[in-house]
Each structure stands twice: as structure tokens, then as C-alpha cells.
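To fix ideas, we reproduce below a protein record of this kind.
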Amino acid sequence: MKILGVPVQATSYQAAIAQIIAWAEKNESRYVCAANVHMVMEAHDSPEFMEVVKHSDLVTPDGMPLVWAMRRLGVPEQERVYGPELAIRLVEASAQSSIPIGFYGGSPEVLERLVNKIRKEYPSAEIAYSFSPPFRPTSSEEDAQIIHEINASGVRILLVGLGCPKQEEWMARHKDKIEAVMIGVGAAFDFHAGAKPQAPAWMQKRGLEWLHRLTHEPRRLWKRYLYNNPRFIILVLSQIFLNGERPAT
């Protein structure tokens, strides 16, 4: 199903995890996007980024507004497949399946806290790799070294926390170079490390997570939400009206 041109799969946590584990067990190079309003609008505004998302192997409905749109467009039972929740469930699934997992992104402090927490809460998880890249473009030599280190570690599932659109563009550039399934998980590292607060469950269910994040990071996020949210609502309502609430393919 397409939401404003972005192909979002009708899936679930169980189905998405099963697919990722199957790819990982075969040592396949894949990448997964967790789509929210921000990602959809970035793709809507940028043909280049739209191609990045379209060439991914799986796009999950991360945001509740996308879930509501999918329900109106023909998938009435669609559930949310939220990046941070998917990340922690993949940690658990990888431990059960003895699949090495890794983390790419976040600050050194956040990544250290995250890895320590996961080792404590999921002692059977095999964390084979973790790296906090510099907050600047990497050189070709640095990138080649990163690819080598990831592949040499034996990681088969790589959680990528660089933020949208940076993480999706990074995964697209590294498909068929990195021998792992890469999953863009946005702010999951910060949330699970306790560096940033997650919205309460009731706010998430009502699609108000953006408001919670805005109150905690107003300077960084106010332009994003002020610009993207109203346009998304108008454009999606137009899509629903023009499709007569039929499934969009």
C-alpha cells in the first residue's frame, strides 16, 4: 500500500521480525525503514529520498497517522510497528535465535549505556558490534574500514540509529556491502538508554507522540512538525477521498 507514494507494508511485529530473522539466517544484505509522518513527507518532498525508501526491503508503519490512513485505505486491522519497540523485540528474537546483533549510531555515551542495559536485561543476546560514528561525513577510507569491521564482527542484524533521513540514506548506500539486515530505528537508542523520555502509551495510541517530543525538544523539532503535520493531514485526506477509501496499491 502506498501512502503519498511511499510503499508501506501491511505487516505486524510478528511478521516483520520473522522476515528479518529469515533474512539474517541467510546472511542477506537488506534494509528496513520504519515510516512515520516525517519520513513520508521527506520522501514526498525529495524524489531522491523517495527512491531510497522505495528500494528498501520492508517499510513498516511506525507512526499512528500512517496506521489510521492504512485502515481507511483498506487494511482495517493494521497495527503499529514502532521502530523503538521493533528494535527491542529484535534484540530478544536475535538472542532466542542465536543471531549476532549490532548497533550503529548514537553518541558514545548513549551507545555505551544502551549496550550495558541490553547485556544486563538480555544476557543471552550476542552483541557483536557497536559503533558511534562521527557527526560528520566519513571519508571513503573510514567508510571502507567501517564496512570491514561490521562484516568481520559477524553481525547479522544491525540496528541503525542515525535519525531520518540520514539512516535510510546510509542503509541504502551500504546495501550489498554490509552482510546484515539493517533496520533504521530513529531515536530508539536514546529512548532505551534513558537519554530521552518516551511518550506515555496513551499518547502513542492517540497519535500524540509528536507533541510529547516537541515539548522536550522544541528548538530542534518545532519546524519539522509545524511544516510537515498539517501538509500530511491534507494530502492523506485527499488520497483517501480520491481513492474512495479503497486499497491503494
Q: What stands out?
A: Residues 62 and 82 are 4 Å apart (CA to CA).
